[in-house]
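If your schedule permits, I should be very grateful for your opinion on a structural question. I would ask you to consider whether the tokens describe a fold that such a sequence might reasonably adopt. Thank you for your consideration; the sequence and its tokens are set out here.
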Amino acid sequence: MRFKKAAVMVLVASLVMTPFTANSSYVSANETTKVEIQGLIFKDMSEDDTTDNKTTVDNSSVNVSSQTSKTNTSSKETKKKTTTKKKKSKKRYSKADLRLMASIINCEAGSEPYQGKLAVGIVVMNRVSSKSFPNSIKGVIYQKGQFSPVRNGSLKKRLRQYDSKRTGSKQWKSCISAARKTLQGQKTILYKGKKKNMKSYHFFSVYLSGARMKLGGHKFK
């Protein structure tokens, strides 16, 4: 740009200093010079405008790209947080826990509806979390005088079936499913068509004084 302006100034100066012989030739040269000068200036201004427009468009593109990138990053971070929360909500359990839980549920509620199976598993897990009972699934189930299948040998029978992989029946599959749910932390069941929270229940039996709920062949409190 500076080079072109300097060229114009040199051209004007050379015309002023150049001698002439006739008015007509001077006028002709002068008009030609004006046209050329105006043409150069107009061209320079057009180039500047084009450059400014390009710069504006480029900046707009950068801004749009930046905003899109931020939105995508924000969406990814939200998805990661959601996934992390979902993973944290599920408790971990061992194969031994699943084996024992599924077997005791089968002993106590094998012929009961699925909600009854869940209820038995929830009571076991509530005891594990309570200071009044042992703090492990094995400790709760084998606690002296608590579960009749331990005393009468039916738990050993179910455990042998589980170990030999004789768990293909509908009843076994239902018991294993209920065991998984309760081991993962489920505390609710469907009772009379509504969700019922059982986190405060620690006992169940066929005969139970002070029962707060009856489900299948068991009373719970």
